[in-house]
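Duplicate of earlier report; DNA repair protein RecN input re-posted below.
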Amino acid sequence: MLSHLLIKNYALIDQLELVPDRELNIITGETGAGKSIMLGAIGLLLGNRADTRVLYNPEQKCIIEGTFGVSGYIIERIFEEEELDYADTCIVRREISVSGKSRAFVNDTPVNLETLRRVTSQLMDIHSQHDSVLLGSNEYQLEIVDTYAQDDALLRQYRSDYQTYRNRKAVFDQLLAEASAMRKEFDYNNFLFEELSKAQLQPDEQESLEQELNILENAEEIKERLQLAYEYLDNTEQSVIDFLKGAVSNLAYISKLSDQYEQLQQRAQSSLIELRDLADEISTEQDRVEIDDTRAETIRERLNLLYQLQTKHQVKDVTALIELRDELSQKVSKVLNLDDELADAKTQTEAARTQLLASAETLSAARQAVLQPIEAEIGGLLHDLGMPNASLKIQAETGKPTQTGVDTISFLFSANKGVKPQQLKNVASGGEFSRLMMAIKYILASKRSLPTIVFDEIDTGVSGEIAIKMGNMMRDMAHSHQIIAITHLHQIAAQGTAHYFVYKDHSAAKTVSRIKKLTLDERVNEIAQMIGGKNPSASALKNAREILKQRTTAVAK
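Output:
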């Protein structure tokens, strides 16, 4: 349950703290005093979106923090699934910065809005006037049935099976689409693959062949120039080597006269040896160069094939051709193995669908089992709420699997005897919606492990005895749930175990909303004003005391 609420710098609230009672908390106040602002702040705790317009002081951040006692409520699984620390006290905080950036925390761990909503949905439920609109939707009606049936585990299993089926069907459908396209392209792709495979492509082959061809096409000139180079070095009377021999001889002579010339002689000798080796290599290379027109033509044909393939496939080298060949190989192989792959995917899809339909049938059975009990319970409560001839019929139709199952739930309602029930959204008035929603919330309260329930003017359109009965129902619910009720009706306000008053404070330069817990005398005065307006008469005050006394007596019993 909510043990402490802190609101700072939100709308008309500079700072507000609320420590609600464990049972039935009544909140009253004039229109515009800030009751809806409080609900808006609580809505942020539950994951609603916000912007900088909510800041009371635009230069400071907004903080909304709720402390919940969760001991005894079965919600540990949610914390485990979201990897959050669990404790008997759960602190939920929402911050909105000056720039409009929003942050959320659960037990000081940052969380995204989806996680925040999932956690807080287990802590608090808010009924607003907008829920009366939701009540007319089939989706919301299905949620009511699921909550009453307590089929969370079945619904989780169904959704898991539904997602598995969708995933497998998506794979199968994708394969079918690919198969159609690939079969159309198979002959062409296979032709290209065989052409590239036949070419026996090798990495770096083109560069090697181009170099070899360049040598073959210039073989005569290469041999001639190698011969000239050799003769310059060692095949004439005035060759470089002959001249160098003379230099070595002279340096050897003078090195005997002085050691300082020995290094010069050694360098010259080394150069002579190197030049002789160079001459030998040039001679060998000259002998190796052959004039082979046949080999040159073979290389030209091979290079022409490589060039043609590159032009055809619009690539720049053999490496790219090899990559293309491998891609085509995969496409061809995939088509050749496609039938087996399709058969396997189809088998998996059919198995997933069988499992999905089995889960759907189990879920539907759980829903069907509670339809009549819901009708009976709500019918009895509507009778107590002043609608003795009202009837609710729940119609269930089966269709295709969706995220929520195969069932479409429709609430059919009639407020009058002898009138055929029709779609709820088409026939119920505002007051009837309020009473119907009260009855629904009442029967669902015992079906959910939910600490706190907030009612925002669920009493719209009712008065008198009906309001008293609504108040009694809230009081009954408060024995097992913490109830926070915003109301304009004194009959409901009198049932509270704690009464808070929201008002505007104009004492400072800027108006602020405040809340205070009423003493017994203040409460008598507030209820008297709700009965007879401002400046209540002695009769109204007496009536208020009597109403509160009756509540105390009823609680004692």
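The mean pLDDT is 89.

Merging into the original ticket.
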